[in-house]
Amino acid sequence: MAATTLLTETGNAVAEGSGRLRTIDALRGLAAFWVAWFHVTMAGTRLPPNALLGWFSRDGTVGVDVFFVISGFVLPWSLYKSHYRVGRYGRFIAKRIVRIDPPYLLTAFLIIPLNFAVARLPWFTGPPFTVNWASALGHIAFLNAFTGEPWLNVVFWTLAIEFQYYLLIGLIFPFVASPSRLAGACLVAVFLASPFVLKSEAHFPHYACLFLMGIATFQYRAAICGRTWFFAVIALATADAWYASGPTMAFAGVFATFAIAFLRIDWRPLQWLGAISYSLYLVHAPVGNKVANLVHRLPQTPLVQYFEAIIAMLLSLAAAAVLFRFVEKPARKMASRIPWEPRPRAAE
Q1: pTM above threshold 0.85
Q2: 30-51 burial string, b = 16+ CB within 10 Å, else e?
Q3: What is the mean pLDDT of the chain?
Q4: Cβ neighbourhood burial of 172 (10 Å; 0-12, 13-18, 19+)
Q5: Collapsing DSSP states into helix, strand and coil, what is residue 16?
């Protein structure tokens, strides 16, 4: 089978295998690897000048932007297939919490002893680690996004953005899935206006244009809207993304949008990375950066710099595989067992 083939029909959105779109998994894998490589190489500063793949290290925000477009698509697509109604909102949020919180919270609170231990090694470089318990406890329910306390992990702020989207999409889904052009126009107008109203990068409105790209792709793939409407919304959202954060965000959004809408990417290494992408996203900074910090004491020859980055990345992948196998996968199963409808009471 070719690694990439065109999807030419609007309605050709049937998930393969386990019901997940292969292109989504591939994009997730690419995005997670991109963000991880960015962090373990410290935006390329831990690589030799003009290093091979150095360009891939310089802007990890591209991977984050791709994740936001993916979420914009996946959540309404999943709700659409589940015949979701707003009356099921509580169960929807419960399923999301059970799905994402166990690996997230475990990673967050394992970072504390890890930081303490590594900071006491004689070859560690940097200030001693201290615990800000207000910051640590603020990770519960992603409260640090609103209190301004620092995150234990540099990527956790993006999970707070995603959770804000979860809270919103479950409420506005009837508008998202409506074929009414009036409902669609109102939805687009609100999302496009959001970055102008609230410019804080800690909150969902700043990135609403990226999620809108995913929503428009869902509407197109589900045949809720036609090609003309789809391209018009993407053009407006691209301009909005350029305003909100510049050409990098706009490029990332368009790339992810058209990959989901028109391509089938079926390459096994990316599928595997996609399967563990959430776990890799969570662990690469605490694991990879600690490895890089310790190895960085060696003489910084080009060979050592490459060795440092590759070892940090490989250990991050190994830690992600373990977290996926023993925490994320069971959490996913538990979330799937939460029924959309309350179970009928047994007759007395």
Answers
A1: yes
A2: bbbbbbbbbbbbeebebbbeeb
A3: 89
A4: middle
A5: strand
